[in-house]
Amino acid sequence: MDLSQRTGHSRSSNLSRKHTIASPTYLTGKTAVVTGASKGIGRAIALSLAQRGADVVVNYLSSAQAAEEVVQSIGSDRAVAVKADVSDQSACTELVRAAVDRFQKIDILVLNAGLLAGDNSLENSSLEDFDRLFRVNEASPYIPAGGRVLFFSSSLTALSSVTPGYLLYAATKGAVEQMSRVLAKELAPRGVTVNTIFSGTNKHRDLFCGQDRCDGESHQPIESEWPHWYAGRGCVGSLVDKW
């Protein structure tokens, strides 16, 4: 399905129209902040942006070593790792300040950080669970402002992908979709492009960290839902090329 149909955004947005790259370093001089960039999709996007010339702020919460590995892969002259809990407004302010202090501006904001943890079925969901997931998955993308904004939703919000046990996660990602639709229109007069990506599952070691364990067995429930298990990798280059 066309991205503009899913999000309600105009077909004229830069992300949904064809874009021909004149140079492999066409993002030179641009600064990108990628939340949750120490692993998974965030890591792949951070590296892809850097390959195309952008300076990158690698945000992480707990994986300092993994974040530094991303920085070293890019080059310490063009990347910096910044620890920040994106559900905390003051931490987000510090993240933005660190980016501006290092690179003077923010051109691209990739709001990738999210939380998928525990059994979120109705009977096993507490108010504390809801508050935690909502702050990370829905509230955190709203806190920073400016630049080209990219939200991440989930295939779990599609009717065909509804899966028992993901009540809170799917609900918060649904909120992200609606926020993105509103912001796309609200920020358009200022020349800010807002889009939402509906990614499939990205298989990495820490996919289920936050549950009782972080091991290969944790993937089995999702593998049973999607027999043709495939980690989302190939789409990252195409996504970044739209900038």
UniProtKB/TrEMBL annotation:
Gene3D superfamilies: NAD(P)-binding Rossmann-like Domain. Residues 1-20 are annotated as: Disordered. Residues 1-15 have a biased composition (Polar residues). One of its GO terms (molecular function) is oxidoreductase activity, acting on CH-OH group of donors. Keywords: NADP, Oxidoreductase. SUPFAM superfamilies: NAD(P)-binding Rossmann-fold domains. Belongs to the short-chain dehydrogenases/reductases (SDR) family. This is Versicolorin reductase.
